TrEMBL record:
It comes from Rhododendron griersonianum. Residues 23-203 form the EngB-type G domain. Belongs to the TRAFAC class TrmE-Era-EngA-EngB-Septin-like GTPase superfamily. EngB GTPase family. Its cofactor is Mg(2+). The chain holds residues 116 to 318 of 322 of the full protein. It comes from the Eukaryota. This is EngB-type G domain-containing protein.
Length: 203
């Protein structure tokens, strides 16, 4: 299930502009701005700068397709909930990513990233609920599990935040979505994610 080859293919702002799907399976990384989507992609492909990352939220602004092992796609998406983005731009992001989730037929599963180092934000629940309502196949990826608790975060450990989040979203799904704890710093969860993706591709 390891990545031996990865290349950037295209940035798109509309589902229609995405590369032809041709039955090539793809997985999309979605989550709040700054949650670590681009960092996770780099961790999965063992490259430091294939997807661009930043300390400042709002770095990724398009639907970015990366071809993996010449046989499937990883897709890096803009984050939601970036308060400093102009209102118009935010609505547009929500629109084009949601259109992509609903209309990209080769999308096998959305990987919803949740920051495990802090308590979940209301907007994370909104997104999880929206995905559940629209029956979009989803995998929960908890990020930044390497970060230790701080008083200002309510003093909770990543494991506790993960449990709280699962409790909060239970009613949104008929079956509990699969979930994986990760860190792009220690590469925790990398093999588990790649194996999970390989299993989903073979269905
Ligand atoms: P947008 O493109 O703005 O939506 O953000 P993103 O979700 O792609 O986040 P990005 O990967 O750019 O990472 C944001 C910040 O979080 C960077 O400073 C990363 O170094 C940091 N970060 C990402 N993943 C981890 C992690 O697993 N652990 C720690 N400690 N920091 C992380
Ligand atoms: Mg990004």
């Amino acid at each position: 299930a390891q990545v031996v080859q990865a290349e950037f293919v295209k940035s798109s702002v509309r589902t229609e502009d995405c590369p032809p799907s041709d039955g090539i399976p793809e997985f999309a990384l979605v989550g709040r701005s700054n949650v670590g989507k681009s960092s996770l992609l780099n961790s999965l492909v063992r490259r430091k700068k294939l997807a661009l990352t930043s300390k400042k939220p709002g770095k990724t602004q398009c639907i970015n397709h990366f071809r993996i092992n010449d046989s499937w796609y990883l897709v890096d998406l803009p984050g939601y909930g970036y308060a400093a983005a102009p209102q118009e731009l935010r609505i547009d992001w929500a629109k084009f990513t949601k259109d992509y989730f609903l209309n990209r037929s080769s999308l096998v599963s959305v990987f919803l990233l949740i920051d495990a180092s802090i308590p979940a934000k209301p907007i994370d629940l909104e997104y999880a609920s929206w995905l559940g309502q629209n029956q979009i196949p989803m995998t929960l990826i908890f990020t930044k599990c390497d970060k230790r608790k701080k008083k200002k975060n309510g003093g909770k450990r990543p494991e506790e935040n993960v449990q709280d989040f699962q409790e909060l979203i239970r009613d949104f799904f008929q079956t509990v979505p699969p979930w994986i704890m990760t860190s792009s710093v220690t590469n925790q969860g990398r093999d588990e994610i790649l194996l999970h993706m390989a299993q989903l591709r073979n269905y």
